[in-house]
Amino acid sequence: MPIALANFRRPIANVPLRWALTVPFVLLTVGATTLVGYLSHRNGEQTVTDLASQLMQEKGNQTVLYLERSLAVPHLINQLNADSIRLGQLPGFETTDPEPLEKFFWIQLLRFPDVTSIAMGNNRGGMVGSGRRLIPGPVTMNVYRTAQFARGKYTLSVTNTDGQITETKTISENYDARTRPWYETPAEAGEATWSPIYQYISDLQVLGISAGLPVYTDSGKLRGILTADINLKGLSHFLSGLKLSPSGQVFIVERSGFLVASSTNQPITETQAGAAERINAGESEDPTMRNTMAQLNARFDDLTRIGETQQFTIEQSQSNQWVRVIPFQDRYGLDWLIVMVVPESDFMAAIHANQATTLLLCLLTLGGAIGLGLLTADRLTCRFVQLNRASRDLAAGNLDRRLPLTSPIYEVNCLAQTFNQMADQLQSSFDRLQTASFESEEKFTVVFHASPDPVAIASFPEGRLLEANESLLQFFGYSHSEIIDRTATELGLWRDLSDREQYKGLLAQQGSVRNLEVEVCTNAGEVKTILLSAELRMLEGQNCVLVVHRDISDRKAAELALQQSEERFREVAHTINQLFFVRAIPTGKYLYASPGYEKLWGRSLESLYENPDSWLDSVHPEDRARVLESVRQQAYAGEVRREYRIIRADGAVRWISTEISVVYDKTATLHALWGWQTTLPIANS
Questions:
Q1: Residue 270 and residue 302: Cα distance in Å, rounded?
Q2: DSSP reduced 3-state for 569
Q3: Does CATH place domain 564-684 in 3.30.450.20?
Q4: What is the distance in angstroms between the CA of the first residue and the CA of the last residue of the chain?
Q5: Span 179-208, mean pLDDT?
Q6: How far apart are CA 623 and CA 626, in angstroms?
Q7: Is pLDDT at 98 greater than 80 in this prediction?
Q8: Phi, psi of 336 (to 5 degrees)
């Protein structure tokens, strides 16, 4: 009995945590209420998700259908006009009177309200067409042309509702249609295609895209280009009418990310340096568009990888968003992405209202169970608080903090023991890293100062010198105090400031520079040529650039001397009457033959280079067998001297003396033959 009482009074140790927290009715209540709330929430979410998916699918199909129909019209117009020209119903590209074409295009434009302009250009640089005026207010029409349907003066005329010209103004004095994107692209493609998106010639920032059709003669010569344009504002107007959801939006982008059209008021261009620049959707001021593009780039890395319709959810703190991406392509080269974004909050308002009642009931039920659970967990809280404080101290750098192993709960003791082991390992790792850091810094310092190459460390991007080794001080002729905290520009080290700009550009783009050849000036005014290498590094928490200079002044001087020597050699070779030659083995081709060949043999150098054995045709028949035998043996004889007669093209017979030596490469392999050749004056006389 005393033994049993002693066991009862002994503190319970190493009790599993799940035993201390397993209260059957709490678990049952919590599980039931949580399951009911979860299922209610999931069913509501699934219903909304299905509804949003159906809506985006419907609107996506509607958008694709609109694009297929509207973008087919310009190519149809071009084909109709090509047929009219072929049948003689319209003047051709060779006409010099554009007026009939103006009227035809003006009438034709009335039949196709979605098309911005219809025109044609010929291979003389001329253009004629009709378009809708790109100004705010009521839509009006105009016609335009170049004088005599050729390159030159370009005028535009405003018309009334009857097509009569009311006003004419000059747009350009030297317009050439062949330089415009709507002409260049189909001319290069050789078939019907779309131009890239480009800005119209207008005071307004208006972008459009042109359908182009090249027309050729029977012989295949390009006569000109038929074109029909679509203003991108029309696409944006259609997208704004889709009414996807109260806060939803639709936009179209190219695979490059540049914006084509948008259902919002987001402009597709911005003014930079007085010119209109297209906006990349990933850099849009609209946060929804910008965040969506960021998610697309993160998911697919490259927009060109999106080959089929994609639908996913973007999780955000305020409201998730459903995204649907539809690739759109046509047979004329268009490759766009239709992006639809619908905020979850547009559909979840009613669901949240119904869930509020369910949530309230669940919370009331959970309240009682959680209250009992809190009483049980209270004894654990103090240990967790202690662990939390110790973890924060550890994160702050206090590696000496340890936890006691005195808890009556087994799992808590295991957790404390694991924490203590982790702290011990961190302390050991920190000590090793600190030692390695000191050793690495010492090695770097030794290498830095002992390097025979001039080395410097400068701040980035300011470029102020922070440290320099002795080699650099000797190379430029400065003392340590004269260069520290000064830039290379202030010291006048750059001989050409354009080299400095190139260096800075490479460093900013690539983060490093390798063997950039530049010229620098020393303190004594001496100009030297160096190879400059640099790399960005983070040193002691500061952005720095490590710069290494390699002096190649002597090498450059040697290259210059070699070049001058080669020039003198060629000058001598061109002035002497003797023949100097170098012939490759085993190909037999002449690597070099001096102009003396033409003087001695009366034959052209071109014939010798084309047929290396053509000189044998001029050898005297009585000497030819002896010469051929000498040629066969010359590669093995080391040095050869032969004298023989030749018959020049003018019939003159001359005695020739030839001296030949062999050349071996580094592997002792026969590489080439070289030699001199001259006439024998005594023999010839």
A1: 24
A2: helix
A3: yes
A4: 148
A5: 90
A6: 5
A7: yes
A8: -115, 170
Sorted by where each begins, the domain ranges of the chain are: 90-229, 243-343, 451-556, 564-684
Candidates 234, 244, 240; CA nearest to 58 is: 244
Q: Does a cis peptide bond (omega within 30 degrees of 0) precede residue 327?
A: no
Dihedral angle sign, alpha carbons of residues 497, 503, 509, 511: negative
Q: Is residue 595 within 8 Å of 574, Cβ to Cβ?
A: yes
CA-based R_g, the chain, Å: 43
Beta strands in 432-487 (DSSP E): 455-459, 465-468
Q: Which residues make Cβ contacts (< 8 Å) with residue 535, sequence separation at least 6?
A: 511, 512, 513, 545, 546
Specify whether the CB–CB gap between 292 and 341 falls below 8 A. Answer: yes
| b/e sequence 260-285, b meaning 16+ C-beta within 10 Å | bbbbeebebbeeeeeebebbebbebe
How far is the C-alpha of 676 from the C-alpha of 619, rounded, in Å? Answer: 17
Q: What is the DSSP letter of 657?
A: E
Select 451-556's CATH number: 2.40.128.20, 3.10.129.10, 3.30.450.20, 3.30.470.20.
Answer: 3.30.450.20
Q: Rounded to an integer, what distance in angstroms lies between the CA atom of residue 233 and that of residue 208? A: 8
Query: What per-residue confidence (pLDDT) applies to 434?
Result: 65
Could you give the residue ranges of the DSSP H alpha helices within 205-286? 232-240
Backbone angles phi, psi at 597, to 5 degrees: -60, -45
pLDDT of residue 562 exceeding 70: no
- Give the 3-state secondary structure of residue 132: strand
The rounded Cα 670 to chain-centroid distance in angstroms is 49
> Following CA atoms 622, 623, 626, 632 in sequence, which dihedral angle do they give, to the nearest 10 degrees?
-120
* Burial (CB count within 10 angstroms: exposed 0-12, middle 13-18, buried 19+), residue 328: middle
Q: How confident is the model at residue 443 (pLDDT cuts 50, 70, 90)?
A: low
CATH class of segment(s) 243-343:
alpha beta
Asked if the domains 90-229 and 451-556 are classified in one and the same CATH topology, the answer is yes
Q: Is 62 helix (H, G, I), strand (E, B) or coil?
A: helix
Q: 90-229: what fold?
A: Beta-Lactamase (3.30.450)
Question: Alpha helix (H) ranges present in 122-209?
Answer: 181-189
Decide: helix, strand or coil at residue 340.
strand
Determine the Cα–Cα distance for residues 178 and 223; give it in Å rounded to an integer.
12
Alpha-carbon distances of 523 from 452, 463, 526, 528, 529, rounded to whole Å: 19, 19, 7, 11, 15
Q: How far apart are CA 544 and CA 456, in angstroms?
A: 10
> Among all chains, which residue has been given the structure tokens 């710069």?
547
Neighbour-count burial for 182-194, b at 16+ CB within 10 Å, e otherwise: bbbbbbeeeebbb
Residue 579 exposure: Cα atoms within 13 Å on the Cβ side = 28
345-395 vs 410-450: helix crossing angle, rounded to 10: 80
Q: Which CA distances in Å does 120 have to 34, 124, 132, 181, 212? A: 71, 12, 16, 13, 9
CA distance 231 to 134: 9
Convert the pLDDT of each residue in 625-675 to its tens digit.
Answer: 898 888 888 777 778 888 999 998 888 899 998 988 888 777 777 778 888
